[in-house]
Amino acid sequence: MSEGRPMRPRAAGLVPASLLLLACPERPGPGPQGPSIGPPTPTAPQAPPTRADEPAPPREPPRLLTDPGSGVSMVWSGAAADAVVAGAELVVLEPDARHLDAFDWSRGEARWRIELPTSGAAELYSLGDRVLVHDRDHATVVEAARGRVLGRHDAPAGRTWPYVHGVVRRHDACAWEGPCGIQILDCADGAPLGPYLASSELHLYDSSDDPTEHSTSCSPEPRLLGRRGGTVVLVAAVPPTDGADPSTGPGPGLLGLDPHSRPRWQQPLPSDLAPAGMTSDGSCWILDEDTPALLALDCESGVTRWQRPLGPGRLRAHGLDESIVIARDHGNRWRLSAYATDDGEPTWSVRLAKREHYVLPGTPLPEAHTTGKRRVYGLVDPSRGQVAGELVAGRDEELWRDPSGGFVLTGPQLRELDGDGRLTRQRPFAGAHVHMVLAGHLVAHDGDTLEIYDREALRERARVEGRMVIETSPLPDDRLLLRRPGEDGVALVLGLDPPERYRGIEGEPAASRASSTARRIHRPSSASSSP
Fold first, then answer.
1. Per-residue pLDDT at 386
2. Contact present, 324 and 294 (Cβ < 8 Å)
3. Which bin fits 506, alpha (ψ -120 to 50), beta or left (φ > 0)?
4. Where in the chain are the domains?
5. According to the model, what pLDDT value does residue 156 have?
6. Up-side HSE of residue 226: CA atoms within 13 Å toward CB?
7. pLDDT tens digits, residue range 242-297?
8. How far apart are alpha carbons 247 and 307 in whole angstroms?
9. Which range is least confidently modeled, 196-205, 217-226, 515-524?
10. Per-residue confidence band for 343, with pLDDT thresholds at 50, 70 and 90
11. Alpha-carbon distance 134 to 167, whole Å?
12. Which of 50, 186, 272, 447 sits between 20 and 30 A of 495, alpha carbons compared?
């Protein structure tokens, strides 16, 4: 919703709680509370058209409108080329791509500000309590709590490595991971460990005369699994094993690397796309869908623990704590069997009804947002080794996990269910398309607008106007990180506290029930300060 457009009737109670503006240079951090701002003006002048050779006018800053007593607040806002959460800090890359700031994401207080030498546009990656800053040529790791530079190293991901690489962190291991190659790095200081492991590439050309128009397939698609003890385990191209035909070249395999990234062990994969994983107790597994069979290894040593043949049918594997669960679809009916990671002994087995999806803790919900058809789910409880309950999603309903436990179905009705699928509450819901379910709120999309509803009264409590991206971050449920990418990028941290109930009098004009305040987005000064 732009400044000159009247608000829709159902949101008439929202008043501007924070108006975000790009301001003159000031020191970073939450700005002072400004004077009250009235409701949007009825009309706004149209910007004159620009010629093709003229730069586009800057986008309007996003606005936060809140309902009195909503509990939704602006914890922090600022100009940002990129922003990530690391530990207790929100780390922000300023638009000049040279300065890095940190703020307490719970209260918005400034922590530190440093200047880094960069060679162009940069991006941030969170490494737990550290941040990796990657420009075209270097990777710099910064301690999030104090702003200390812990390491700076060459990072050819944007220069000599093919394709785009991103930094991933899984089970205490870190790597540059791309579609056709992987490079292990030290999570502590960003130092590259060992060589870059490239996968074989297959280029598929179509009938076009342009040789650049083709698709590329990589064998295998590299993937970091994690660390166990002193061994980092990954899926990568590995050389032929002893006794194999050396002319075949590298093939897909599970590879264990020592602390210096030298091969400690390797296990060939049965195919390029063979599922493989790591459990929290240090067991690695490989699913051979052709044989079919399940192989379990010790992740640190690579020693085979056990191998178990499996029955026919479509197979899936899930690593859950100290067991590996195999789901087998035979005749449109799933059977789930769990095997202990240490010795492969069966621990439980359940069979679902025909055409029923299975749901396991911590795994994606199948067809959760596929509307247009009715879906039935069997809720499997591994601790009891049984189907604990069942839930049905209607043709116009989407299924979500409830952060407070259980499930939520959104549609014309908002239905809340416990962990066994029993209905606990059902109410009409007339909101926009739900994008996220939080413990106390619902976040919905309506075009370029994000709408925030409280789950108790199902009222729209706040709205963010201006296209924003909801960032996946390790923030608690009462904080939400929003970001608008681009040269005029913006980052916001919203506080989502429970709304104050029964505040104000129904029918009283919103402006008389609460004042509206302004907060500026500060563009930091060029002077840097030591952490």
1. 95
2. yes
3. beta
4. 17-39+60-109+438-531
5. 67
6. 17
7. 655 555 668 899 999 999 889 999 999 998 889 999 999 999 999 999 999 999 99
8. 29
9. 515-524
10. very high
11. 9
12. 447
Q: Tokens 């996003």 sit at which residue? A: 62
H-assigned helices in 145-268: none
Of 86-90, 219-223, 341-345, 374-378, give the lowest mean pLDDT range. Answer: 219-223
Contact 252, 274 (CB under 8 A): yes
Rounded CA gap, 140 and 91, in Å? 14
Pick the closest to residue 273 from 284, 263, 283, 288 (CA basis): 288
Above 70 in pLDDT, residue 324? yes
Tell me if 125 sits within 8 A of 131, measured CB to CB: yes
Closest CA to 272 of 238, 295, 299, 243: 238
Residue 164 has a pLDDT of: 74
> Do 35 and 518 contact (CB within 8 A), yes or no?
yes
Q: Can you tell me whether residue 96 is helix, strand or coil?
A: coil
Q: What angle do CA 148, 154, 160 make, to 5 degrees?
A: 150
The span from the CA of 197 to the CA of 185, in Å, is 12
* pLDDT value of position 383: 93
Which of 266, 268, 279, 381 lies closest to 340 in space, CA to CA?
A: 279
User: Could you tell me which of 103, 72, 80, 76 has the C-alpha nearest to residue 90?
Assistant: 103
Alpha-carbon 491 to chain mean position: 16
SS3 112: strand
Of 381, 388, 374, 387, the C-alpha closest to 420 is: 388
Tokens 């008043």 correspond to: 15
Contact 373/395 with Cβ under 8 angstroms?
Answer: yes
The mean pLDDT value of the chain amounts to 82
- Integer Cα distance of 200 and 219 in angstroms: 5
